[in-house]
UniProtKB/TrEMBL annotation:
Transmembrane segments: none annotated. Gene3D superfamilies: NAD(P)-binding Rossmann-like Domain. GO terms for molecular function: oxidoreductase activity, acting on the CH-OH group of donors, NAD or NADP as acceptor. This is Dehydrogenase/reductase SDR family member 11. PROSITE patterns: ADH_SHORT (PS00061). Belongs to the short-chain dehydrogenases/reductases (SDR) family. The keyword Oxidoreductase applies. Keywords: Oxidoreductase.
Length: 254
């Protein structure tokens, strides 16, 4: 990770779960991290906590909604102006409301795709544009996808979420090809976790008993497990592009 010391990472969805753990891990490895979320005060609290711990790097909290194109542009412009520009982008922000296809809720489905897919594409476009304009050729884009991007689980209402993560899987390869054709060495990687014990289920409106049973389930990953994988992916040597990693808790039932 030495080559990343002092360089700049943007992490979307840094107020909770995998994004917060990843922002922490990158800062602990000496990066200057821009943590984006709507609940910016939680990212600010983490930033202050890291300072108290004498963290090697630094976390900057910035408010932003990945669904809003102008807000995405502002985050990357702020990063350029204040910190010199983005070198690593972690596209992590996401949500997973249950949406039945027979009682299709267009508003909820649009929210899934606007957040998990279009937000990821907007941040990617702005970050790669910024990297290339500064001649950065070793940048890295990491998508936090899901095991749900590789198959359809037997859970009612997860079709649209799974569809969004299948999109992320395809978009990872599409981006790899575009970067290759543009003759840049900027890399793209995807990480596909199984069940991780985070706030996503509550935030996505799952019934309370289901949220509780997920928190009680001993067969889950912790956010740090995924943050560790992010560190592994971005620390690979320049000639190695880790394309997609599936990480499951040992003994996962589905
Ligand atoms: N937990 C799992 O089992 C699991 C499994 C596979 C993949 N994943 C993926 O991992 C990623 C992170 O999820 P998590 O489990 O860590 O969930 P989480 O604890 O609920 O965190 C989600 C983060 O995304 C942010 N976010 C949501 N919508 C946003 C928006 N419109 N603009 C900006 N930020 C937004 C939230 O921040 P604010 O609400 O403050 O904006 C929060 O920081 C997601 O892409 C998810 O699909 C999770």
């Amino acid at each position: 990770m030495e080559r990343w010391t002092g360089r700049v990472a943007v992490v979307t969805g840094a107020s909770s779960g995998i994004g917060a753990a990843t922002a922490r891990a990158l800062a602990e490895n000496g990066l200057r991290v821009v943590g984006v979320a709507r609940r910016v005060e939680i990212v600010q609290n983490l930033s202050e906590q890291l300072k108290r711990e004498n963290c090697k790097g630094e976390l900057f909290a910035i408010q932003g909604d990945v669904k809003e194109e102008e807000e995405v542009k502002k985050v990357i412009a702020w990063t350029r102006e204040k910190l010199g520009g983005v070198d690593i982008l972690i596209n992590n922000a996401g949500l997973a409301p249950m949406v039945s296809l027979l009682e299709f809720d267009l508003v909820a489905a649009k929210k899934i795709f606007d957040t998990n897919v279009h937000g990821l594409c907007l941040f990617t476009r702005e970050a790669v544009k910024d990297m290339r304009s500064r001649g950065v050729d070793d940048g890295h884009i990491v998508h936090i996808s899901s095991i749900a991007g590789h198959y359809l689980a037997e859970f009612k209402g997860t079709g649209p979420y799974s569809g969004s993560k299948h999109s992320v899987r395809v978009l990872t390869e599409a981006l790899r090809r575009e970067l290759r054709d543009a003759k840049t060495k900027i890399r793209v990687s995807s990480i596909s976790p199984g069940l991780v014990d985070t706030e996503i289920f509550k935030a996505s409106g799952f019934p309370e008993d289901m949220v509780e049973s997920i928190h009680q389930n001993p067969i889950t990953l912790k956010s740090k497990d995924i943050a560790d994988a992010v560190i592994y992916v971005v620390s690979a040597p320049a000639h190695v592009q880790i394309h997609d990693i599936i990480i499951r808790p040992t003994g996962e039932a589905f």
